[in-house]
Design brief:
- This protein is mostly beta strands and 300 residues long.
- It has a single domain, classed as Sandwich (Jelly Rolls), CATH 2.60.120.10.
- Helices cover 6% and strands 47% of the residues.
- It contains 2 helices and 24 strands.
- The chain has a 7-stranded antiparallel beta sheet, with no helix packed on it.
- A hairpin with a 2-residue loop joins strand 2 and strand 3.
- It starts with 8 loop residues before the first strand and ends in a 22-residue tail after the last helix.
Length: 300
């Protein structure tokens, strides 16, 4: 598909494969050309794939600071556990929002039954940087059931569904309070449907999960992240049935640094977090006795 920019599209980012745990994901953000879209600083797309029986999805205990991890599934299930004592099974359509603040540890695994049986796995994990004055807040965990997330009526026409996962868009507001003005939408568009990107937010991205879309006559396929031009009315047309993630918001108060799983406005704070993880000073995940993921060599 084309990577051409135009009057509506400022930048086209092609997601690249990266190893995570025992699987491979497609990473769309960050890249050298773009470090953030609003407060969104990281986008991983995993699947669609069929996990063989006996393997499962397996990411052991690992730490975060300075951000919120946001997980949404299209297929499969993931068992989330964290150092606050949270234990939550994530189903397709749900929203899992964990805020690390000054520090949290979590794991993401298949349940024993799912690991034994195998099955589909498909979803997104996105990281949202905290405002500078909230980077050291106490960690939090929130889970929003799919039935509590609003569907925005009248968008995309027959056969299309647009759900608001977080923040505000099109005059609607999601139930979870966020620490930064933002929006995060899950859109399924029928072939030929059109959707106008929300224009109340300055920075906006469109990630093509599945299918093909057209904007201003240019086509873009799966695994492309389109950075839309600010203050521009943008109409998306589905060339075929497709799924999109739309997100963005107000620009960050200042650029963020990212090193492994740590996000901060301070290099010193990140180095301290790395030392704390190496030396075992982060809290543990009480319901997960698996070995923690070590700090990778290239991040030491």
């Amino acid at each position: 598909m084309s990577g051409i920019v135009n009057a509506s599209v400022e930048l086209v980012i092609e997601a690249k494969p990266r190893p995570v745990g025992n699987s491979t994901v497609m990473r769309a953000l960050p890249v050298i050309a773009r470090r953030a879209i609003g407060a969104f600083v990281f986008v991983d797309h995993f699947g669609p794939l069929e996990v063989p029986p006996g393997e499962g999805f397996d990411v052991g205990p690992h730490p975060h600071i300075g951000l919120s991890t946001v997980t949404s599934l299209f297929a499969g299930e993931i068992l989330h556990r964290d150092s606050l004592g949270s234990e939550q099974l994530i189903h397709p359509g749900d929203l899992n929002w964990m805020t690390a603040g000054r520090g949290i540890v979590h794991s993401e695994r298949s349940t024993p039954r799912r690991k034994a049986e195998g099955g589909p796995m498909h979803g997104l994990q996105i990281w949202v940087a905290l405002p500078r004055d909230r980077e050291e807040m106490a960690p939090e965990f929130h889970h929003v059931d799919q039935h509590d997330l609003p569907t925005i009526e009248g968008l995309g026409g027959v056969g299309s569904t647009v759900r608001l996962l977080a923040g505000s868009a099109y005059g609607a507001r999601a139930p979870l309070e966020t620490h930064h003005p933002l929006f995060y939408l899950d859109a399924i568009l029928a072939a030929g449907a059109t959707l106008r990107a929300p224009d109340e937010h300055r920075e906006r991205g469109v990630y093509v999960v599945e299918g093909t879309i057209a904007i201003d006559g240019e086509t873009y396929g799966a695994h492309r992240l389109l950075v839309l031009r600010p203050e521009t009315q943008v109409t998306i047309t589905a060339s075929e049935r497709c799924r999109l993630a739309l997100f963005g918001g107000a620009p960050l108060d200042e650029p963020r640094l990212m090193d492994w799983n740590f996000v901060s406005s301070s290099r010193e704070r990140i180095e301290a977090a790395k030392r704390d993880w190496r030396e075992g000073r982060f809290p543990t995940v009480p319901s997960d006795d698996g070995p923690p993921i070590p700090l990778p060599e290239r991040h030491k």
